[in-house]
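Moderator note: this is an archived Q&A kept for reference. The question asked for a predicted structure of one protein chain; the sequence and the answer are reproduced below.
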Amino acid sequence: MTTPARPPATAPARPATVSRIAGLFVPLAVVVTAAALLGDAGGDLTTRVATGGLINLILVLSLYAYSGTSGVLSFGQIGFVLLGAYAGGILAMPPATRAVLLPALPSALAHITVPQPLLPVAAAALAALAALFTAPLMTRLNGIVGSIGTFSLMVIAHEVAANLRATNGAAGVSGVPATGGPVTPLLWALVALAATAALRHSRTGLRLRASQDHLPAAGSVGIDVRRARLGAWTLSAALAGAGGALYAQFVGSFTPDSLYLATTTLTIAMLVVGGVRGVTGAVAGTLVVTAVYQLLQSAEAGFPLGGLTVPAVDGVAQIGLSLLLLVVLLRRPGGITGGREAELTRAGVRRALAAFPRRTRSRS
């Protein structure tokens, strides 16, 4: 009696997953880094635009981590941004400054010191804890009901911050030591890119994307949608908290209104314009909307046109952004990228390398 031959050993799935994550991360990281370096080389204005754009990219990627994977458009991420901004801003201030500017701050917080490089980490951890606290409710809500639930979360966060005496209420926080340059935001943007690329190609990301198309069918084949959403919700909050801490150090002073409806609209517009269902869409939307919004803001102040001077008009940037969003929704509902990813694959790299010598010989 002969024993059946053993089937050939299959390669483990992990290297393939790692290669797919790297294939998505590397080209986007190159584009983001190049844009940051280009902005930093252009002068003070472009450096500030690049830094603000990188922070916005972190916020948009945090929005993608939940909304882009689960299909539930979330307004609540801005609440985690606000929490991260307060945590990072207050902890960045020297204790002596806190005693003067925030006299009602609890003594437990008045004397804590955190090294500046770790401020986004501390803010991300605090936001992740808040996400775990809110997850049992938020992860069970679907569709428009889920969006309204996250909107309520945003309103609660804003009202608590606006009425909290310990942090000056609606007057907000000032005196946060400002950090110059896009280096730290760039590093965190790359971290956010790596995290969201890993989420997209992970089992959690695949299960969430499967649940977008047919939620009951996903449950019928054994997908625990709430458990999958918990991971995405927590990651989304952590990235939002880190982005909030970077925002606080970028602007130096802020109020609860600084991180409310306008910021929510801007980040959602960036994700929708680029493409809700892809990491590439988050990057493309941030780049496009940042450039367009900056041009429109410059136009708001008035500009010369031939022999005439166009007067300053308030609201041009918001109106222009809204029109851009409407055009994209009408002409390309899937966004600029249509949900496609700019991924490097082994086959694609081999084809490019094989074609390169032929092009070189033809030119010679």
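Archived answer notes: The chain has 15 helices and two strands.
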